[in-house]
Amino acid sequence: MNAVTPAWVRVRLRTSPGAAAALALLVALTACLAAAFPRALDRYENAGLAQAVDRATPPRTSFTMYAPLPDAEASDRQREQALLPPTLGRQQAKVLDTVPRPLVADPGQSSYGVTNVTALAVHDPWIPQPSGLPAKVRLVAPGGLAEHSSVREGRLPRATGRVTASTLDVEAAVSAATARSLHIKVGSVIHVPAMSGPPLVVRVTGILTPREPDGAYWSTVPLLRTPALMEVLSDSPEPPKYWLGALLLPSEAAPALTGTAGNPLRYWQVAPDPRSLHAHDLEGLKSAVASLKSGPGLVRMRAATDPAAQVDTGLDDVLLSYSRLSSGITPLVAVAAFGSATVAAVVLLMAGGLAADRRRLELTLLRARGASLPGLAGRLLAETAVVAVPAGALGLGAALLAVPGGRPGYAVLAAAVVTVVACAALPVRAVIAHRAVRVHGPREDTVSVRPSQRRTVAELTLLVIAAAAVEALRRYGVAGSAEDAGASDGSGGQLVSLAPVLVAVIAALVLVRLYPWPLRWLMRPAGRLRGVVGHLSLARAGRTSVPSVLPLLALLTALTTAAFGGSVLAGVAGARDQAALLAVGADARVEGTEPLPDGLSDRIRRTPGVRTLTEVSMDYQAKTGTNARTSVAGVDPAAYASLAERTGLGAFPEEQLRRPADSGAPLPALSSPSVAEKYGTQPLSLQLGDGTEVSIRIAVVRDRTPAVIGTDFLVVDRAGLSREKARTSALLLTGDHLEAGALRRAAGTKTSVTTRAGERGEYVDSPLQSGAERIYTVAVAAGAGYAVLALLLALLRAAPERAALLARLRTMGLTRAQGRRLLVLESLPQALLAAAGGALTGWATVLLLSPGIDLTAVALPSSALSADGNELRTDPLSLALPAVAVLLLTVGIAVGQAWWTGRRGSVRELRAGDAR
């Protein structure tokens, strides 16, 4: 058998080039999608981590080690040597070598030196004093100053001779921003107080420009490049301020800092290399950071520098924040990936099953002539591998080129799995079907076959697994880790992600069990009909063989994944819309710090797209009886009640807010729960920002209100306010397609304009969020495409039999119209089963899994206002559209097959006459 295998393969490829090309295309496409998925996921996760670290800025992400000066037992010479570049440089090299993997240090942006912890006041009169307070400076002697800066004016500072604690004169440089703010020029002299004796004279010899101002060398301590205007804690409305800047001494002059009262410390800064931060190493990165802060890494750092050294960094908080975001997004993507992968696997198996069915007689004949099962499987495997292996490699190459970045190992593994499944589908199916040598197989009609005990046990086992997965997801949530679910090896998390697929599997098995019952019930009344098409179509539908569970599984899984994915995407869009509405209060908001000019409301009202306009008088300086500041909105009750009802933000009856007829009665107010809990329903004195007082009484309590963003607010009828405070300061607009540019042109430059659409566009905060949405969309689309392909394969499997049936029936006088109706009615039961079952399964999946899924992580940044109830909800369109598409596609294929069969010459030769 092995000797004839190459010849067998060549003959098969020559006789069936179309089937080989179709298999190659299917394998290449599937391998490409499978290989692209992990690379795309890696790419978006790495981009999200890089953005999180970049936004955190070097002051949080760098590691800074501080060590005090050598103890008093050391000699002066030893203390000086400990502060000079040779010693600090050697220690810095050891520090960089001790950074544990996968964390990698960036030597170019890491630094070391000596700095004063305490800023010292300088009383030179030419230095600006904004509030009459002297400026303060911090002396820093950094290493590598020449390599990281360019001289704008003057020259770099130098140390002449031996510098000690008693040195009275040193040189320094300052950044261009420091020189500009503190009025420092080349040649300026600054007198820094010494610990005792005359002050240290610092002569500025150069003004520097940082070569990489945003790099860790300059940004870990921003004071090196940018001075700060500091405020002194005070109860006055305008607290006093003073300037704080840094004087950059040459590293050889570091011993001079010990003569000042600035409490000098040695420091070593380690900047992580951004290229080394990969999302798949997240746990390792967190372990490395923890080791450096309080573990073995810190011990090694102290051994390399000083036993009293301390490490400070905020990188662990950055990684933890990213980990929370990732844990809320990745499982949702895994659900779509598992669903699409299941449908793709089913399609590959169906392709192998279709090939085995088409060649059933050929394989039966080979078995009858003595072919062994291993030999037959080997031939079929070689025949399939010749086509599938190059196609899989081609798909892998296309994925590697199309999606740069990411780990290639997982892509190769995914493409290899696809190729193996494609190669094994035909041999395995043939071996199962031809275990015994026989010419005629038993007939297994849907309406007559009885499921075996083994099948019943397998179905019950799957039912238990699916129920466990659904319960785990409901209990621990989609973002729950495997450890939370009690599976330390990660299988629990995979089981949770497989829950929708398992629900679809159970639904497919149950529906296949139930499918014969309606057919049996309909067979008897259909037999009494006068027409032959109805009875014949039901009889044909009842003779569908039992293995039809496979295409049904593909359709149900695809429909369930589409429903789940559509609900996720719709839920994300809804959460963003709601958060944008909470942030704006309407479709658009126009607000000024002062009352809006007369006529502005009319101009805004005439802007295209504006449907309604509500005027509001805002007062952010109002105080209640306990002197607590509260935001107060003065509104027209009728217009504002209508706005609250339209937006769904705290609707209320307008009568409850209208000013009472008695001018001495308190104004009814709408308040937030926190304000109502604090003051109750008793009359309350409210002091407005202009000094006037108004008596109010809380009459309505709502969690949200359109006019005020926040949780502490009061809303009153502005007819009861003073004329000045009743002036309009904000406009809340509703309408379709409001353009921010047109509103800004109409509002002028002295007002701020925010739109709901613009605010919503800011909520894609991380590449991980946007990438997850794209991956989810592609996964759902791929699942839908494979479902269509599964439907085509299922219908293609029965196409020869249907064509022969139509040919025979046409010889008996069946018209073309009757033939079309026959094929349509024959395929409708299974199509209705798949469509209805898919919609029901999708609805049940969303209903069962929604308690464990929160879409806040994928929908919104952490800074956005989030309403309660961002859990998954059923999207009717995601349920209805795929189901309707299945019905339409099934009917269309049946009609097309009947039309094509009617055009074939064999039908024209076989028919006895055209009785149309």
Could you characterize what this model shows?
The protein has 916 residues and is α+β, with helices and mostly antiparallel strands. The chain has four domains: 1-57 and 352-431, no CATH class; 63-312, no CATH class; 443-578 and 766-916, no CATH class; 588-737, no CATH class. 52% of the residues lie in helices and 14% in strands. It contains 29 helices and 21 strands. The strands form three sheets. It has a nine-stranded mixed β-sheet with strand order 17-18-16-19-15-14-20-13-21. Strands 1, 2, 3, 4, 9, 10, 11 and 12 form an eight-stranded mixed β-sheet that branches. Strands 5, 6, 7 and 8 form a four-stranded mixed β-sheet that branches. Strand 17 (684-687) and strand 18 form a beta hairpin. Helix 10 packs across helix 15. The chain starts with a helix and ends in a 6-residue tail after the last helix. The model is unreliable at 478-492 and 905-916 (pLDDT under 50).
pLDDT under 50 segments (min length 5)? 478-492, 905-916
> What's the mean pLDDT score?
80
- Count helical runs: 29
Number of strands: 21
Outline of the structure:
This protein has 916 residues and is of the alpha+beta class. The longest helix has 45 residues, at 767-811.
